Known about the structure:
elongated, sirohydrochlorin cobaltochelatase activity, metal-binding
Amino acid sequence: MTVNQPFYGKKSDTEKGILVVSFGTSYPETREKTIDKIEEEIHESYPDFALYRAWTSGMIIRKILKRDGVRICNVTEAMEQMRADGIREVVVQPTHVLNGIENDQMIRDAGAFERDFDRIVFGAPLLTSQEDNERVIQAVVREMPLKEDEALVFMGHGTSHFANSIYAALDYQFKDRGYKNVFMGTVEAYPSMESLMKMVCQNSPRRVILAPFMIVAGDHASNDMSGEEDSWKSEFEAAGFQVECRMKGLGEYPEIRQIFIDHVRDALALNEKE
């Protein structure tokens, strides 16, 4: 069994560490372009910090252990490893999109080690401030320029957490910024596919472009978005639209990765003020 801790930086001579926390993915090709890339760029931006990885999805951790023989730490295990390595100051930086269920659990799990470290600070998820929202909007529209007869439909995950309201708010903000043919939906919450279909039909595009609004283009993108049966792709095709699926997770966008790097900076700045 291999323990998957990819980047340690100056572990032997530093007492500062960054723990990058992701939901995880069992798709290695998208992980390399997203989670790995975010970790690499955070490590390059803060070379004086040892860097550790943790994932929050126990199901994915177990799947990779069984399939690949690779053990990826959860948050508790990663914090235990940092403590054993002599780390004293910790920045916990999630790659989560929202301040939702996974992020709340991450804070509880890492916060349980408060007495074991001199300082633990938390970086923000992707969509935390109005500035974050604006930066994300500009990042995705630059990556996916549209023709007048095209509509871009993003598939978010969705959650029962109250933070789910950000999806509808972001849909509104796209249109408020003049991007009338960009739509935001979710797999598991609101805006639902039913709501999306009504709004897209009112827009009357010739072609619908589907893209994941998730850090990785993993299982939901491969099945719920672009699968052949009972997928968003099949539903839009049945409604008479030409459909193109772009299998590109948010973590592949350089400007999105920069937001996470900046959130580490903000967490460190807050630490210094305190």
